[in-house]
């Protein structure tokens, strides 16, 4: 077990370094010159030079990369003398657009993305798994068909269309909810809940659909397995058969994709956050891409990668707990 | 100013780059909401925005959106006249008692500070604070805002701002209330230049490193209550600000709640609905896509038109064949169907035809049309004749650089169709929004023509409009704004001549003249002056467009509520 963990963690570090190198390559080498972009109108060559110097863009690429990586672990200092600023580890640099430290920008916005992800995850697991179960157990009935039609809609309607539609219906037409606007939980819990409700529904709708279909297919498959037939033949009550023998193996694949989906979502829900004006990591990502704010793009890419990679490891661990077969093999 | 040119602030720029006019208030048409009423004092005004302001630090920020915001919290020696004044393009005294006095040789300018002006902590603003604030512009890290101070004020070659090099000796402070600036060359419009955001005073020693990234030291009527980057800015009254010293800012509301990061479609949806506290909310502009939904009597009366201070134009690269021939450029000017371009820009409500380079709201503007046509639909015959004369009667193929943005693509297609009629095949080169200005500003990457826009840094004259676009000596390899790359001795000489004029009214007359002289050489095709529309909440008033402070957008310092108790 310990060896398994160590090897997985080493893999995590390696993957993150590769992601680092790759994003650095893509955003710093291939994209337009940030100095010219910052300079904007009324730009002079002298000013461009000054910005380049300041951001360390005149250094060789390898030096820039190494400075970036060492900044992650040891922090780095920008500028000299009284106006110098120290960026403490883990230093992801400063936004080209707003001069704020990227690490701080991320940590400020992460709670919003986590709230979105957790709320949506609860909702979609509940709706998706229950919907899938109902579909599987009442296969071919009206229940099953309508659940699957809704699921199909959830998969096929683009997120932003559904989001705007939902907002139009719930807020503008029915006036059941106010327009979303960030309010801290401590200040007004009701308003806070109303603010997150639509993002949760929008995200959960898309994910729940996938989960419902997956659960349904898996449960149907397991119900046809020999051991289930055996359990039934033993005279075990139907409810117990489903709970003990069918559900557990049927849900392990759901755990796998849930780990990945949830980890991915922690890195920010770009579209949902943007549509509802939630100041999360996803919206920040969208903004920084639009503005070519490379340090921020770099930071969130790393963060999202870290979440997914770590999520993967966690899934593996949970898997060993859930499925004795895996446990045996890895031991 | 980079508002018009920087994709980074696309959403802000949209508003910043449009609008402007002597009177933003509701027109005389019966039943319209009048936004020109004087607001009552008190209440909270809410501003809904998509993009965050670029920087709280005025040494760094420099675009139409943020300049407007700065006026709520900062003061400068002079500033743009409030949007409701007789001449809103003018520059008026702010911290200084007048627009400054030049020395005999024009090389030094003296300003006297008003009495009773203070920072938010009650400390008086002294001449040393003014010098300190301006000198921050030379700091290599901070000084990325307005370039004017560095360009015009004399400074030692190796000066790097107050934190590294100490006080700037070329700005003298003989006593607490007197500041003397020494210039590289005479600059008759220096009184307008000191209205630039980087002339905001700061207490000596403050603002090093990233201190002003999340905080401010207010000198204006409001100060920061809270700031959540990407989410909100809340302003409260700066109790130390003395209204007696300020003729520009009536400061009606008690609080400002600026909500950032909202989806533009959601902002419009909120303004259309106008529910609850949203009667006190406004956005700087509505999306063109929202326009059809505003065509109801109740909503139409709430519309506020903000005419333009910026020009949308097509620059022709005069270093490339056949655009090196003036007749070809004139032919293109004649052939372009401007009425179609206007339709592509959103129709008459959102765009006004341009035949001049200078918008009507910029000082010096004079009406003329050198390339007229029936219904502004293009004069195909006259254009063909000129092409024939130039030896390209069979037409040619050209590449037009445009931004990957629906409106600009529609404008380009309108040009494409019009030029087809004179045998010119236009190939569109669509460039990503985020790298557009960088690409067309790099002379080596520029194609035959490009569509872009320009807004002045101050609206009181054309000195920040015509020279950056047409002075041949300012052409640079990167960050170039002279898209036509025209280097004409006549134009260059005229620019020098007008710049040296100390009588600003006479100079404006000459700028207007030069506008026409440049168009005789036809380096650009003026397309449209793009205006914008706002749909403010019905409890708002005091909404006036300001060409100088807001690039034609709503002048924030005049905004207030009719009834502070509502919403």
From TrEMBL, chain A:
UniProt keyword annotations, A-Z: Cell membrane, Membrane, Transmembrane, Transmembrane helix, Transport
UniProt superkingdom: Bacteria
Protein name in the entry: Peptide/nickel transport system permease protein
PANTHER family associated with the record: DIPEPTIDE TRANSPORT SYSTEM PERMEASE PROTEIN DPPB-RELATED
Membrane topology, from the record: Multi-pass membrane protein
Taxonomic source organism: Streptomyces zhaozhouensis
Transmembrane segment boundaries: 12-30, 112-137, 149-172, 192-212, 250-276, 296-319
One Pfam family recorded for the sequence: BPD_transp_1_N
All copies of domain ABC transmembrane type-1, residue ranges: 110-319
Record-linked CDD domains: TM_PBP2
Entry's localization field: Cell membrane
PROSITE patterns: ABC_TM1
UniProtKB/TrEMBL annotation, chain B:
Protein known as: Peptide/nickel transport system substrate-binding protein
GO aspect biological process, one term: peptide transport
Positions of the Solute-binding protein family domain: 91-472
Organism: Streptomyces zhaozhouensis
Signal peptide extent: 1-18
Source organism, top-level taxon: Bacteria
Keyword set, alphabetical order: Signal
GO molecular function: peptide transmembrane transporter activity
Listed PROSITE patterns: PROKAR_LIPOPROTEIN
GO cellular component, one term: periplasmic space
């Amino acid at each position: 077990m310990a060896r398994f963990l160590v090897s997985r963690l080493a893999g995590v570090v390696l993957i993150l370094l590769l992601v680092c190198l790759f994003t650095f390559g893509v955003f710093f080498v291939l994209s337009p010159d940030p100095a010219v972009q910052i300079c904007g109108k009324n730009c002079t060559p002298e000013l461009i030079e000054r910005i380049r110097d300041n951001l360390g863009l005149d250094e060789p690429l390898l030096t820039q990369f190494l400075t970036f990586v060492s900044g992650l672990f040891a922090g780095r200092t920008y500028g000299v003398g009284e106006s110098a600023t120290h960026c403490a580890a883990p230093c992801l640099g400063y936004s080209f657009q707003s001069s704020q430290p990227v690490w701080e920008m991320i940590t400020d916005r992460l709670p919003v993305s986590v709230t979105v992800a957790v709320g949506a995850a609860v909702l979609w697991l509940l709706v998706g798994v229950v919907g899938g179960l109902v579909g599987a157990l009442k296969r071919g009935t009206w229940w099953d068909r309508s659940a699957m039609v809704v699921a199909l809609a959830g998969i096929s309607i683009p997120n932003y269309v559904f989001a705007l539609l939902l907002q139009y219906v719930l807020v503008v037409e029915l006036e059941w909810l106010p327009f979303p606007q960030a309010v801290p939980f401590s200040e007004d819990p009701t308003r806070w809940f109303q603010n997150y409700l639509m993002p949760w529904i929008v995200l959960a709708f898309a994910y729940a659909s996938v989960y419902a279909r997956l659960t349904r297919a898996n449960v149907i498959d397991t119900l046809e397995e020999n051991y289930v037939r055996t359990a039934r033949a033993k005279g075990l009550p139907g409810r117990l058969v489903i709970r003990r023998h069918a559900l557990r193996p049927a849900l392990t694949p759901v755990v796998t994709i849930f780990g990945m989906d949830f980890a991915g979502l922690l890195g920010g829900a770009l579209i949902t956050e943007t549509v509802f004006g939630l100041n999360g990591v996803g919206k920040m990502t969208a903004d920084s891409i639009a503005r070519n704010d490379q340090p921020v793009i770099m930071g969130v890419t790393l963060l999202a990668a870290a979440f997914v990679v770590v999520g993967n490891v966690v899934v593996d661990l949970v898997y060993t707990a859930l499925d004795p077969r895996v446990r045996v093999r890895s031991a | 100013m980079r508002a018009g040119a920087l994709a980074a602030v696309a959403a802000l720029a949209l508003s910043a780059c449009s609008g402007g006019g002597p009177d933003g208030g509701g027109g005389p048409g019966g039943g319209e909401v009048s936004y020109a009423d004087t607001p009552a004092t008190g209440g909270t005004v809410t501003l809904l925005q998509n993009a965050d302001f670029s920087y709280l630090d005025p040494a760094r920020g420099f675009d139409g959106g943020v300049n407007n915001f700065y006026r709520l919290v900062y003061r400068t020696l002079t500033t743009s006249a409030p949007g409701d004044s007789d001449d809103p393009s003018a520059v008026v005294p702010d911290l200084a008692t007048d627009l400054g006095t030049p020395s005999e040789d024009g090389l030094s300018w003296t300003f006297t500070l008003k009495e009773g002006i203070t920072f938010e902590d009650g400390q008086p603003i002294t001449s040393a604070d003014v010098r300190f604030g301006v000198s921050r512009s030379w700091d290599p890290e901070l000084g990325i805002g307005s370039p004017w101070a560095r360009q015009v004020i004399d400074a030692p070659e190796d000066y790097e701002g107050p934190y590294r090099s100490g006080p700037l000796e070329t700005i003298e402070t003989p006593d607490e209330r007197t500041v003397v600036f020494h210039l590289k060359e005479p600059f008759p419009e220096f009184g307008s230049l000191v209205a630039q955001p980087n002339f905001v005073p700061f207490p000596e020693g403050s603002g090093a490193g990233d201190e002003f990234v999340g905080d401010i030291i207010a000198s204006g009527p409001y100060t920061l209550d809270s700031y959540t980057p990407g989410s909100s800015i809340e302003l409260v009254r700066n109790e130390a600000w003395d209204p007696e010293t300020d003729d520009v800012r009536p400061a009606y509301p008690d609080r400002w709640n600026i909500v950032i990061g909202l989806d533009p479609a959601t902002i419009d949806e909120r303004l259309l609905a106008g529910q609850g506290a949203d009667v006190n909310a406004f956005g700087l502009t509505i999306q063109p896509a929202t326009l059809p939904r505003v065509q109801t009597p109740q909503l139409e009366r709430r519309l506020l038109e903000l005419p333009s201070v910026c020009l949308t134009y097509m620059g022709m690269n005069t270093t490339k064949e056949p655009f090196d021939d003036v007749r070809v450029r004139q032919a293109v000017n004649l052939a372009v169907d401007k009425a179609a371009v206007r339709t592509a820009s959103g129709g008459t409500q959102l765009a006004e035809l341009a035949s001049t380079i200078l918008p009507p709201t910029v000082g010096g503007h004079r009406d003329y049309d050198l390339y007229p046509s029936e219904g502004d639909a293009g004069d195909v015959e006259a254009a063909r004749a000129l092409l024939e004369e130039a030896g390209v009667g069979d037409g040619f193929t050209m590449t037009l650089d445009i931004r990957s943005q629906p409106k600009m693509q529609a404008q380009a297609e309108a040009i494409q169709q019009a030029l087809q009629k004179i045998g010119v095949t236009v190939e569109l080169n669509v460039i990503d929004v985020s790298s557009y200005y960088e690409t067309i500003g790099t002379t080596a990457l520029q194609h035959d023509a490009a569509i872009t826009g320009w807004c002045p840094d101050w609206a009181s004259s054309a000195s920040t409009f015509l020279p950056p676009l047409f002075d041949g000596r300012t052409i640079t390899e990167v960050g170039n704004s002279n898209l036509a790359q025209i280097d004409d001795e006549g134009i260059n000489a005229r620019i020098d001549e007008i710049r040296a004029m100390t009588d600003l009214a006479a100079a404006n007359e000459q700028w207007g003249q030069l506008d026409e002289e440049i168009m005789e050489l036809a380096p650009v095709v003026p397309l449209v002056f793009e205006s914008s529309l706002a749909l403010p909440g019905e409890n708002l008033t005091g909404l006036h467009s300001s060409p100088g402070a807001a690039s034609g957008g709503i002048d924030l310092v005049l905004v207030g509520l009719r009834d502070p108790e509502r919403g």
